[in-house]
Design goal:
The protein is mainly α. Helices cover 55% and strands 5% of the residues. The protein has one domain (3-156). A hairpin with a 7-residue loop joins strand 1 and strand 2 (81-84). Helix 6 runs antiparallel to helix 7 (136-156). Belongs to the NPH3 family. Residues 17-157 form the NPH3 domain.
Length: 157
C-alpha cells in the first residue's frame, strides 16, 4: 500500500510523519543537516523529536532491548544510579565508534523543549550513552533533561 492508497482515517495520524522513515536512512551527518533545515523552517519540537526517535530505532542496535547486567540502585528518594557490567556484547571497534558518534549526535540535537522526546526514549538513550562511554558533558546534559522530566512529573502528582 502506498501513501496515496490509504484512507483518510489511515492517513490522518501519519500526515506529518510519513517522511520519518525516509530521513532515517541517511548517514548521521546528512541527518543533522536535515534536522537543522527543518528546525530553521519552524517545525514543531515534537515533530523533530519523533524524527530523532525514528532515526535512533533504525541506527542504534539494542535501543529497544533490555541490557543484561544493567542494575539500578539507590536508597534516597531522588537517588537513581546505574551500573553496567558484563552484559555488553563484543563488537568491532568501528561499530562501537559509529554507535557512540550517533548517540552523541542525537543527544546534542534533541530539542530543548520539554517533552519533545519521550521520557522512555531519553532513558534508553542514557542507557546506551553509558554503555558506549559518550562524552561526560553530553551524558550529564541528558541526565539533567531526565531529572527535569522527573521533577515535573513529581510536581504534577
Amino acid at each position: 500500500m502506498n501513501r496515496d492508497d490509504r484512507t483518510s482515517e489511515d492517513a490522518a495520524p501519519n500526515q506529518e510523519s510519513w517522511w520519518f522513515n525516509d530521513v532515517a536512512t541517511f548517514r548521521i551527518d546528512h541527518f543533522i543537516r536535515i534536522i537543522s533545515a527543518i528546525r530553521a523552517k519552524g517545525t514543531r519540537a515534537e515533530i523533530i523529536g519523533k524524527c530523532i526517535i525514528e532515526y535512533a530505532k533504525k541506527w542504534l542496535s539494542g535501543m529497544d532491548v533490555e541490557i543484561e547486567g544493567l542494575r539500578g540502585y539507590g536508597h534516597e528518594k531522588y537517588n537513581l544510579q546505574f551500573s553496567i557490567f558484563s552484559g555488553k556484547k563484543k563488537e568491532s571497534s568501528g561499530h562501537n565508534k559509529e554507535q557512540k558518534t550517533i548517540i552523541e549526535t542525537l543527544i546534542s540535537i534533541i530539542p530543548p523543549q520539554p517533552y519533545a522526546v519521550s521520557y522512555k526514549f531519553m532513558l534508553q538513550l542514557l542507557k546506551m550513552a553509558m554503555m558506549y562511554y559518550v562524552s561526560p558533558a553530553l551524558a550529564t546534559e541528558l541526565e539533567k533533561r531526565v531529572s527535569m522530566v522527573l521533577e515535573d512529573a513529581e510536581e504534577k502528582r
